[in-house]
Amino acid sequence: MTLGYGTSLIMLALLLLVPLFVKNFIIFQLTMLLIYGLAVLALNILTGGSGQFSLGQSAFYAVGAYTSAILMEHAGMNYALTLPVAGLICFGFGFLFGQPALRLSGVYLALATFALATAMPQLLKLGYFEHWTGGVQGLVVTKPDAPFGLPISQDMWLYYFTLVITIAIYIFSVNLLQSRSGRALMAIRDNEIAASAMGVDVALYKTLAFGVSAGITGIAGGLGAIAVQFVAPDAYTITLAISLFLGMVVGGVGWLPGSIVGSAFIIFVPNIAEGISKGLSGAVFGVLLFLVIFLVPHGARQVAIVAQQLMGKLKRN
Amino acid sequence: MRSKQKMRIAAFSTVIAFVTTSGAALAQKKYDTGATDAEIKIGNIMPYSGPASAYGVIGKTEAAYFTKINAEGGIKGRKINFITYDDGYSPPKAVEQARKLVESDEVLLVFNPLGTPSNSAIQKYLNSKKVPQLFVATGATKWNDPKSFPWTMGWQPSYQSEARIYAKFLMKEKPDAKIAILYQNDDFGKDYLKGLKDGLGAKASAIVAEESYETTEPTIDGHIVKLKSTGADTFISITTPKFAAQAIKKLGEIEWKPLHIVSNVSASVGSVMKPAGFENSQGILSAAYAKDGADPQWDNDPGMKKFYAFLEKYYPEANKLDGSVVFGYGVAQTMAKVIEMCGDNLTRENVMKQAASLKDFAPDTLLPGVKINTSATDFAPIEQLQMMRFKGEKWELFGDIISGELSN
Lengths: 317, 408
Prior knowledge:
The complex is a heterodimer.
Chain A: H1 5-17, H2 24-50, H3 57-74, H4 79-101, H5 106-125, H6 130-133, E1 139-140, H7 154-178, H8 180-190, H9 192-197, H10 202-228, E2 230-231, H11 238-251, H12 258-276, H13 281-295, H14 300-316
Antiparallel strand pairs in A: 1-2
Helix pairs in contact in A: 2-7, 2-10, 2-11, 2-12, 3-4, 3-5, 3-10, 4-10, 7-8, 8-10, 11-12, 12-13
Chain B: H1 2-26, E1 39-46, H2 56-71, E2 79-86, H3 91-104, E3 109-111, H4 116-129, E4 133-134, H5 159-173, E5 179-184, H6 187-200, E6 207-213, H7 221-228, E7 234-238, H8 241-253, E8 259-262, H9 269-276, H10 278-281, E9 285-288, H11 302-314, H12 323-342, H13 348-355, E10 384-391, E11 394-403
Parallel strand pairs in B: 1-2, 1-3, 3-4, 5-6, 5-7, 7-8
Antiparallel strand pairs in B: 9-10, 10-11
């Protein structure tokens, strides 16, 4: 389920040290890597944990992004304080959405969430909210400076800020899935009837999974708004939801460390595809995706398991 | 650990400082990042993939134009290195690509990035970095704001100024019009609608119906039927090509024959009028600032001859019926003109200064009489259009060149 201590420490060291040696532009990309990683992780809890599909994560991401942006620009709130608010609002939103979604499962649930994702950009454009959301023009967000006069760039500060939040949420998620609640979720995923026979409150846990997932996605959205410095309805279309879904599959469904691999896939592979051919970037991306799904259907998790087995063999020799 | 970090940062910043100062020391002729004796790096962001990928042709035309310039020896001996990236029409991706261009490729300026959302997303970043964001490919009115954003400039006439021209026309030719409007529910549609209402002023009550549609709707037939039922006698279609063609076709089907105005965005013979059927398109009005590549009346025009020769040699697979090709050529020519005017002073500041000193410049593909003028307080290069009417298989221009200049 999780990484060993050694691997975790190496990962942590890499995440801490790499930004010191690269350009600001790459630090920005790494920040986006963490942010999308968080969003993929949130979907992973929902799908990998409780077995519910969602193609509507972009809607929660958008609500989080807009919450942060509106609080920062209209209410003058500190950027760090907007994140818990974004998380809470999205938790409530996800929890409420989870109620009707209880009656649905499998592809039907996927379609219901899909509706949410397609509706969101239009809701954000509504004239009624335009005063706050900026309507179709979006909102420009001010990027925070490093506090306490630290001599580091805005990008580097934002990276470490995001890293701390990501690690905290990662540890929370790992513990959540290993706790009593996590076991209840997995029991529901494996067999709903058996789970309820054991005394698991299926309805409560399913909606909670939706709430937690939406809450984390909301925090990711808020961070995304701060990093990109701009929110607009067209940034949160169904394409984003599908990208996140893709990231989860590539990373390995239900394997939390895979989230960051999946996030890397959705950020960097389109760039590679573009480098190969501008006119056919979409087709090249499709081919690469197909190769991944064909060769390693369980994503990064499968690669990790194979690597582990190889290491084990080497040690024995 | 912390002191080590600090040392690394210090070492890193010294390297940066050294690199930048040594670059400046070489400069006899005044260069900023991205310009040398041998080449000028120009960055660009285009939606080669995604919902707006049809516009990717603009980027390809520009690349071909700079290839032509390089083949002819460059500008003052300097070759243009045109670096163009795909943003898939997604604002966060545009930010990533803009940062890549500025920080990794180190371009002198970002030229003609496409789309209002994408440009809004990168505007603040480029202005804070003092990198020119020149001739953006969007008609939003907000790019003409030299006070708040001195590093950003538009190119084409803004949607609002075009809409004002229609308002002027209607008030003069059909003062008792009952107007029905169909608009796309996004920045383009709303900006346009505002221009129309501002232009009509006190006469805005002539608008009897407004309907909006989403780009995700498969068909807009329902909206058209609803608008017809209001009894309007004037129909303004603020639509992108696919929907403009649908509207024209539907109007023909339900035999509704109002005075029909389509926005310039969709005034293309190849991608709108022809698919909608010429028999349905007769008498439609629009306004233009550029020549139509599909129109035989320009076959002997010296500017268009140069344009066709360019296409033949450097971009033979291009569809000359596509308005985007004409657009890409005109805007790339304007860019080349600005670089030429910069002479040997290729600093970002001077680029902006020259871009803001264009006087009566007329690219080959603009209508006769339409000229590009800019100044330190006017960052809207093209502000003139001419009304036209569709007749037979082509547009016929009529009336004078009208200026839709916004009086602020």
